[in-house]
Hints:
The chain has helices at residues 16-30, 68-77, 94-101, 147-160, 177-180, 187-203, 208-215, 218-226; strands at residues 2-7, 34-39, 80-86, 112-113, 119-120, 131-137, 166-172. It is an alpha/beta fold. Strands 2-1-3-6-7 form a 5-stranded parallel β-sheet, sandwiched between helices. Helix 1 (16-30) packs across helix 6 (187-203) and helix 6 runs antiparallel to helix 7.
Amino acid sequence: MKLLAFQGSPRMEKGNTEKILQAFLEGAREAGAETETLYLRRMNINPCTGCFSCWFQTPGECVQKDDMKEVLEKILEADVLIWATPLYIYNMTAYMKAMFERILPLIKPDIIEGKDGLASHPARYKSKRQRWILISNSGFPEQEHFESLLHCFDRVCTIWTRGEGFAVTILKGAGELMRYFDIKLFEPFFEAVRDAGREFVETGSVSQETKARVDKPLWEYAQTASKP
C-alpha cells in the first residue's frame, strides 16, 4: 500500500501538523506500507489560471511547467492520499489550496450525474479507488471550527473516493498546546495516532476504541500535567 501525504503547513517539519502526520505514517510503515510526504511550501506549484487547457488543448496535461506534473504522476500511483494542513482562516493553507486546484487535469470536462443526483465531472483515468485521509489542527479548542475545511473538501472527496468520503479524519483542537507544553505529555495521543495508522493499513479502517483515543481533547493531557 502506497500512502502519499501532502503537507500544507508553512512551518513544515516544525509545525504541529507534522507531529500528527508523522505519527500516523510511522504506524502505517510499521504495518508494511510505503509512505511519502510532499512539503508543499518547498515545491514550485503555481495557482491554477483557469485556462482549461488541460481539458481541451492538452487533455490531461497542464500547460504550466512546474512541480505539479510530478505531483499528478504520484497521485495516480498512490493508494491513499493524505491531506495534512493546519487550519488557516477556518480552512486549508494557501499552499494546499493552490495544489488542490491543480488536480484539474485528472478530471474530464464531461458532466455526469453523481450518486447523490448532483452534477459532477468524472475521473480522466480509470484506476483503483483511492482512499482519502484528512489531518488538521487548530488553535481553537472546539471541533466546530473545522466545518469549513470539511465542507471545502467534501464534494471532491466524495466523488474521488466513489462515495466513501474520508476514510479517516484526525482533527485536533487546541493544537498549540503541543508547542507550549512538554511534548512528552502528549505521547499517549501520538501512540493512539500511530495505532490508527497501523490499523488502517492492516484492516482498512480504524477501530472505535482507537478513534476515541485519537479524539480525546489535548487539553486533558495538559490538565493532568498541571496537577501537583
